[in-house]
Amino acid sequence: MFTFLRAPYYQLIATRLIKKHAYKRKAFEDRDVLERIIFPYILAKFNPKKILDIGREDYQEFYNEFFRGRELWTIDIDPGKLEFGSLHHITDDVSNIKKYFSNNSFDFILMNGVFGWGLNQREQINKTFDAIHDILKPDGIFVFGFNDDIIPLKEIEGLKKLSPFDFKPLSGCSFNCLNGNHKYKFYTKQARNT
Ligand SMILES: C[S@@+](CC[C@H](N)C(=O)[O-])C[C@H]1O[C@@H](n2cnc3c(N)ncnc32)[C@H](O)[C@@H]1O
């Protein structure tokens, strides 16, 4: 596909998927931001081949369709979430993710609503972010969505090893959604940090 067609193409796909599967959302609510803005931009700009989505709820099952034809992995600690995962689903604590993947594996990692929603212990958090840093490919993108800093982000070593990424459609490296206090932060891994 011509490069200039990628953005409108994935925007169209997102619009269709949202219309088909999603409940009505207000513009710039957390899920609207993720599905209408973040996913299409990442698909168009990064063309990710291998993706990891951490934490899966029923309302996310259709996310598999955004990444059709790509190698999408999902992980959730709760065995009951298996049915909402991708074809490649792991039931485990995300802090164990390095058991399954070698360094520099993923083009795109999403962890939304898990920090503070089960990923709560400092040691477990540090292990998880170290692993995310390691399994992300150089120049890959990590999208981190959360509500509260249950521990200060500046104390998370794995996160500090990543570099903030300027997410152009949301005008910066961080975006505060209009509902609650949900925010997204965007990171990349510099090639020198591999
Ligand atoms: C509030 S839901 C958010 C799910 C989803 N990622 C989203 O965007 O809304 C939290 C999910 O993370 C899972 N989870 C919580 N702690 C986890 C952990 N340590 N490892 C893997 N999954 C975890 C829960 O089982 C649940 O499915």
Write a short abstract of this structure.
The chain is an alpha/beta fold.
Any overview of this molecule?
There is one protein chain. With 194 residues, this protein is an alpha/beta fold. The protein has a single domain, classed as 3-Layer(aba) Sandwich (Rossmann fold), CATH 3.40.50.150. Helices cover 30% and strands 23% of the residues. It is built from 5 helices and 8 strands. The chain has helices spanning 3-21, 30-46, 63-66, 122-135, 157-160, and strands at residues 50-54, 71-76, 88-91, 106-112, 136-146, 163-164, 174-176, 183-188. Strands 1, 2, 3, 4, 5, 6, 7 and 8 form an 8-stranded mixed sheet that branches. Strand 7 (174-176) and strand 8 form a beta hairpin. It is globular, with a radius of gyration of 16 Å. The two termini are 30 Å apart. It binds S-adenosylmethionine.
